[in-house]
Amino acid sequence: MAVTTEKVDVPAVSTPKHAGGNKRPNKYRSALPQYVAISPFFILFAIFGAFPVFFSIWLSFHSWDGIGAMKWVGLEQYNYLLGDPKFWTAISNTLVIWVLSTVPMLLLALVIANALHNATRFRSFYRIAYFIPNVTSVVAVTMVFGSIFSNNFGLLNAFLQSIGLSQIEWLSQPWGIKIAIATIVTWRWVGYNAIIFLAGLQAIPSDVYEAAKVDGASPRQTFWRVTVPLLRPVILFTAVTSTIGGLQIFTESQVLLGDTGGPGGAGTTIVSFLYENAFVKNQFGYGAAIGWALFILIVLFSIINWRLIGGDESERLTSRLRRRTRKEQTDAH
Amino acid sequence: MRTDRIRDLVSHVVLMFGVALSIFPFYWMLVMASNTTPDIFTYPPKLLIGSHLFENMGKVLDNIDFFGSMLVTVIASLGVTVLVLFFDSLAAFAFAKYEFPGRNWLFGLLLATFMIPAQLALVPQFVTLAEFGWIGSLKALIIPGAANAFGIFWMRQYARGAIPDELIAAAKVDGASFFRQYLTVGLPVLRPGLAFLGIFTFINVWNDYLWPLIVMTDPNKLPLQVALQQLNGVYGTDYSMVMAGALMSVIPLIGVFIIGGRHFIADIAAGAVKS
Q1: Band of pLDDT at residue B255, cut at 50, 70 and 90
Q2: Could you tell me which residues come within 8 angstroms of residue B63 by beta carbon, excluding any fewer than 6 positions away?
Q3: Rg for chain A, CA atoms, rounded
Q4: Which domains occur in chain B, in start order?
Q5: DSSP reduced 3-state for B45
Q6: What average pLDDT does the segment A196-207 reach?
Q7: Residue A72 backbone phi and psi in degrees, to 5
Q8: Angle at A29 between CA A24 and CA A34, to 5 degrees
Q9: Keywords, A to Z (chain B) (predicted)?
Q10: What value does the mean pLDDT take over residues B244-270?
Q11: What pLDDT digit, counting tens, does each position of B172-203 carry?
Q12: Would the CB atoms of B11 and A133 count as touching at under 8 Å?
């Protein structure tokens, strides 16, 4: 990728030198302003994106504390990573938190989007109220939820006590920790996803619904047979973004539980595992290797999402469905 | 129709319940920040807004350099936002409205960079900045994010539909340079798109945590989120004070959001549905 940037820069840098002697109108030269216009991104990406990516491959074959000499260890970091029980714990923690947050989040978002779609008044009030959690800093939000889930005198435990249930040490137990983190994630992202679903709902043409009505479909049938299939592309978008976001959870865990992920590391996510090894223990080579493991996981899960919810296939399906409902509509008339 | 009215009512009940859950943590933050810690740590806890808000805020100012941290965050957020708006809109204008050799190929490359997760190269990014001597300096927060693929992609989609070709052709006839065409034809038309990208960028930089945590190591120049977490780590038992700090850190941002929020939400949703 660094090569590409050079290609952009070559005309940008070298043409002015030839400017006097060059009489032929050069298509690269006449596009010089455009190349200059797009160059900042490519230059910054080369320095802070592409170069570090390649450097991290190199780094992951070394043992390095960031200060002393780099020591070549070959595939040793990866070998150690695959045998590191903490790595597997971090993966399973991340996946559990991801499921605990994504499933309720997308379902609630769908319900809210539907209600928003039906409601005619106060729409902009609702949108702002639902979106505010998403723009509030995760650090501040996590502190509030930390106090709500607090073992002693937390609001949730006070509530449990008031209805006669026994208290739960949320932030000491493996499941309690994961539920607390998943709650924060869900709270932050339900509104965002609802707004996106709403836009998807509004993009569904009303003739499709009329066709369903003519066919005598119940509201439930309409929802599952018409709305959900037509929303597939939007659902895919939200599923992919929540997967990528879910695999990168860090702040909630770090603010709630500190660098080590709480008792037994039950709140350690992949990124907090990376952070701890690279920036707390200064194991840069190991940190680079963990970064690649994360990358592979993200690619893997994106492919799974794509297969499950379907890319092209779902588009074909929805257009077929739409054609069919249209046809039924004309038949009915 | 009656069923429609019932459906409307049910929708509003569901929505108001959701709004209550959405807003409650903010209310609880205010309750904690305005009571004393012993008041909260009793059973039953106080559930109403108390009278100790300014006292708790004062304690925050005594314990951390709150306004210094806020200044760091404001400079970083504004700096990145201004640079992103300029670089992204300029690049988007070129990609959207001009033919040049390699255009589609370069744009494809730009889209491909989306695939790289931010954490993949966290360690070498840190090492690179350390080589530059930027660790602990505002440059580390501002320069690497000064142009981004998302903004260019988004602005290009916007510019393609919004800027009429005739206006550019007319500017060319008048002998305007590319940059002058950008200033006189592009920028005025792109203003609504810039408003969205500006708020989006500002909020993201303001709230970013992992990157500042790693690169802003100078204790005299901690950004707001990092300072807040330090307050939490050191004085975690004084909930009221920590919550007062949290409250002070979110108020400016919520202000920005409410001022620019309505269009912002519509734009975010439109972007997702189109892509």
Answers
A1: confident
A2: B231, B234, B235, B241
A3: 26
A4: 64-234 (1.10.3720.10)
A5: coil
A6: 89
A7: -70, 125
A8: 155
A9: Cell membrane, Membrane, Transmembrane, Transmembrane helix, Transport
A10: 83
A11: 999 999 999 999 999 999 988 898 899 889 99
A12: no
Give residue-wise pLDDT tens across range A43-76: 999 999 999 999 999 999 999 998 888 999 999 9
Provide the CA B86 distance to its chain's centre, in angstroms. 17
Show residues of chain A in contact with B232, CB under 8 Å: 139, 143, 255
Chain B contact for A300 (CB, 8 A cutoff): no
C-alpha span between B147 and B86 (Å, rounded): 8
Amino acid letter, residue A164? G
CB atoms within 10 A of CB B63: 17
Secondary structure (3-state) at A191:
helix
What is the rounded distance in angstroms from the CA atom of residue A99 to the CA atom of residue A112?
A: 20
And the tokens for A272? 């907090």
With an 8 Å Cβ cutoff, are A237 and B272 in contact? Answer: yes
DSSP B171-230: HHHTT--HHHHIIIIIHHHHHHHHHHHHHHHHHHHHH--HHHHHH---GGG--HHHHHHH
Using an 8 Å CB-CB cutoff, list chain B residues near A147.
Answer: 28, 32, 40, 239, 243
pLDDT digits (tens, 9 = 90+) for B102-137: 999 999 999 988 878 878 889 999 999 999 999 999
∠ Cα B50 B53 B58 (to 5°): 155
Name, in order, each residue with C-beta under 8 angstroms of A245's C-beta and a sequence gap of 6 or more.
Answer: A189
Written as six digits, the tokens of A193 are: 């996803």
Please identify, in words, the CATH class of the domain defined by A81-332: mainly alpha
Residue by residue, DSSP assigns B53-75 as: HHHHHHHHHHHS-HHHHHHHHHH
Contact between B213 and B226 under an 8 Å Cβ cutoff? The reply is yes
Q: B197 contacts in A (CB within 8 Å)?
A: none
Q: Residue A315: its pLDDT value, please?
A: 56
The model's confidence at residue B80, banded by pLDDT at 50, 70 and 90, is: very high
Q: What is the value of pTM for the model shown?
A: 0.87
Q: What's the token pair of residue B216?
A: 């802003």
